[in-house]
Amino acid sequence: MTPRPLLSVEELRTYFRTSAGVARAVDGVSFSIAANESVGVVGESGCGKSVTSLSLLRLIQRPGTIEPGSKIELEGTDLLSLDDESMRRIRGNRIAMIFQEPMTALNPVFTIGAQLAEVPRVHEHITRRDAWARAVEMLGTVGIPDPAERAHSYPHQLSGGMRQRVMIGMALMLSPALLIADEPTTALDVTIQAQILELLAELRARTAMSVLLITHDLGVVAESTSRVIVMYAGEIVEQAGVRELFAQPHHPYTEGLMAAMPRAGTKRERLTVIPGAVPSPYEWPSGCRFHERCPYAWERCEREHPPLYEIGVGHVSRCHLAVEPERRATPHLPLAARAGAGA
Amino acid sequence: MRRLLAGRLLQGLAVLWVVATLTFVLLHIAPGDPYSYQGDRRVAPEVVAHWRHVYCLDRPLAAQYACYLGSLARGDLGFSISQSRPVREILVDYVPRTLELMSLGLILSFAVGIALGVLEARHRGTFADWGSRGIALFFYSMPDFWLALMLALVFAYWLPIFPISGIENVIAAPTYSGWQRLADHLRHLVLPVTALVLMTCAAIARFQRAAMLDVIRLEFVVAARAKGVSESAITRHHVLRNALLPIITLAGLMLPMLLGGAVLVELVFSWPGMGFITAMAVGSRDYALVTSSVLVTSALVVAGTIAADLLYALADPRVRAK
Amino acid sequence: MLAIRWLCAAALIAALCAALRRFAHGSGRTSRARVVLARYASHPSAVIALVALIVLYVVSAFSPWLATHDPIEILAQALANHPPSRELLFGTDFAGRDVFSRVLYGTRISLSVALLATSISVVLGTAYGATAGFIGGTLDTVMMRLVDAFLSIPRIVLLIAIGTLWAPLSITSLILILGLTAWFGTSRLVRAEVLSLKEREMVAAARALGARDLAIVRRHLLPNVLSPVIVAATLGVAGVIVNEAALSFLGIGIPDPTPSLGNIIHDGTPYLATAWWVALFPGIVLVITALACNLAGDGLRDAMDPRQVDR
């Protein structure tokens, strides 16, 4: 038996009720993260990754709501039943988050030292001076050279990589149990990306925290996570250990993402792209939500919404190919590609 | 910083030069000249000839222009025929009164406007937000002079709480002690300042509200929430600090409106400031005085804008560093 | 008789509103105008403002029929500063003239002056801003520095100076002067819009070889510039009507005995303590007009420019 997970999410539904209708951005997502585990969430933009991560912190703003029936449990506490003040005490303390673009996620008019020191100051009784000392110490930990000096800098005076280090430092001020990293490297150069991922891995090893890494880049996932969740159209479509997933991707969407991934050492004329775009959350397609873009889709896929089929140890896939594997032998042009060619 | 200041000063001088040229052109194409109109006043022809000669009006156009700019540069704004003394002397007497009214009005209307804007942004979409914006727009739409008249009607005639005109109680003031005198003066300030604040705070509140809402959408607000900062601390600390920056620029932009409003408010409350003296000069067609008030108000606006720019540069770390 | 006239006016307004609603919500192809209209109609305050403006316009257009007395005729010396009554709705002024009728005619004059002056300023501002933006370079810099200088002068002070130098002003010259001093802001708006469009259009023009400058201006520039200009004009009417009133209040606007909202207030000011009605009623009409223009302008801005949607 597996021990009780650090975080467990069950049937998470986050809907946005607007005048245009109901956008079901996250539509029944269940997963869990164990202590000191690193889990990746991948998918194209618009598939519900970021809304999922914001939901975990209850940072969804009007008109978005987490629907009744959803459950988020951290260390045995039901986060959705907490009052606002208790929830506030969890943010930045037990669960911290880093964002894609550190330039916009840092307040431009405060020094980075002040922004780091703010975290212990809102959560603990601590003097301004002590908080500042801890901020400087943390800046050193995340690899900012000359931290005592640098703490007085404003965000715009730092490079992109340095700013992301500051963001990470800010998230780790109170040694959270879970760090949510939403596209932490997307805005950075490739070399800096590697450094940041290395830093995250090192910090995770040192502090025993868990990491939920959200990205559209399978390469990032391959390097730094042990388990991968693939999301599409507000749902989990595949989940597996990272080796298993790369060796035997099951869901056609995962296959498509992999085919679209540039690989070192392989020479390709051009990258394959998945035809069409993520559908609108206001009206997800009937049946399998991927069927219009799927090269194997058949009549059943239009009609019947597939459940998560168990296809291996710790490997699930939301695809009817699990019960009709012979269909994989006869790919065809997806509906979306045909419509695209016709237009 | 020093270069910024030098650059802005140079720009300001250019603006004043354009304004001076404009007033020169206006004076030139207007019927008559500053010293030819006498109306029902008796001004000796020798006096007129004297001033015409002093201000080069008996010389060719180019010389007149050079002479005009030259005397302005020396701070000589001409001679007021209606008051029979140099315009500069008149302004030295009256401008401080306007500055007193203006600075009080500016400070209070920004205090009120910013507070309203923050509250409206915080409670956006609620009845309080709509109500506050509606009332503010109502006062904003009022002609300044009429607003002043109505204040006088209600709070000086119907409910005789505040004095109707002037800067102090002329009869009783000499007998007052220092504090009594100050209190009396403040009582005279209430209505004119209220008029200025009511007519401008709506624009400020509206701007502040929009600025707050612009900042609230930014990612660092979400990041601050993710850090566990409380909603009220986010508004007070993270959002307000950023949203105050554009307000500084607004202060510079509001000056023309506030000065224009002060002219009419001063007239209604007989507040002996520059606006009052300008309005008085209309009847006597005192060319030198009215064109000088154009120059002086524009100079005040330019100075205010430069001050606002410098303040902005000091307040914004992104600009300060450059 | 009076009641019938008011009833006719009310019926006309109701019909207009209904037509507007039908047009906005009607079925069929959704044109841009219809989208704008529908968005405008979703702001209740803007709709009320539009109705108020239509009422004001209709009332002022029909002032000869709605007025109860001659606005200039002195009723009787004994009737000077008479308080409002059933006969004299808004009372009389110091000369014994009916304030209600004067306000009706005054609204007509003030509105006409404001509309004409705003038209002048809009045309001037658009031409000036488009020229500066389209030609660019040094000319643009010089032209915009000039606008900066003009904007640094409080408009009422400039108007007072001009009014003093050329007093007494005829109505025509008053319209001209109000128009000539109100275009600075518009020119800035138009220039900014032209610059941003130029940026976008240049890319498109490079692709679609052969598109003439003039064709670009006509097909892309003008329609896009139109929205901010319409908004600026609506807000501008509020500014101009208030400035005209201020000038008339100072005694250098529309000359007596012709009524304008400003000079009725001017006539009432010396008697404020005893005959408050003379200054009160024209002021209320002024406030309603300016408020309606401001609300309608805000509504138009929200309706025409989705980027500026109020959040």
Structure commentary:
The complex is a heterotrimer of chains A (343), B (322) and C (311). In chain A, helix 4 crosses helix 5 (128-141), helix 4 (112-123) runs parallel beside helix 7 (160-172) and helix 7 (160-172) packs parallel to helix 8 (190-207). Chain A has 13 helices and 13 strands. Chain A has helices at 49-56, 84-90, 102-105, 112-123, 128-141, 147-150, 160-172, 190-207, 218-224, 242-247, 252-259, 299-303, 335-342, and strands at residues 7-18, 21-33, 38-42, 64-66, 71-74, 77-78, 95-98, 178-182, 210-215, 227-232, 235-241, 309-312, 315-317. By secondary structure, chain A is an alpha/beta fold. In chain A, the strands form two sheets. An eight-stranded mixed sheet of chain A has the order 7-8-9-3-10-11-13-12, with helices on both faces. Chain A is 33% helix and 22% strand. Chain A is globular and about 65 Å long. Chain A folds into two domains: 35-54 and 83-232, P-loop containing nucleotide triphosphate hydrolases (Rossmann fold); 236-262 and 271-342, no CATH class. With 322 residues, chain B is an all-alpha fold. In chain B, 76% of the residues lie in helices and 1% in strands. In chain B, strand 1 and strand 2 (85-86) form a beta hairpin. In chain B, helix 1 (2-29) packs antiparallel against helix 11 (287-315) and helix 6 (144-158) packs across helix 7. Chain C is mainly alpha-helical and 311 residues long. Chain C has a single domain, classed as MetI-like fold (Orthogonal Bundle), CATH 1.10.3720.10. Chain C has twelve helices and no strands. Chain C is globular and about 70 Å long. Chain C starts with a helix and ends in a 7-residue tail after the last helix. The relative contact order of chain C is 0.14. The chains are: A alpha/beta (343), B mainly alpha (322), C mainly alpha (311). At the B-C interface, helix 1, helix 5, helix 6, helix 9 and helix 10 of B face helix 6, helix 7, helix 10 and helix 12 of C.
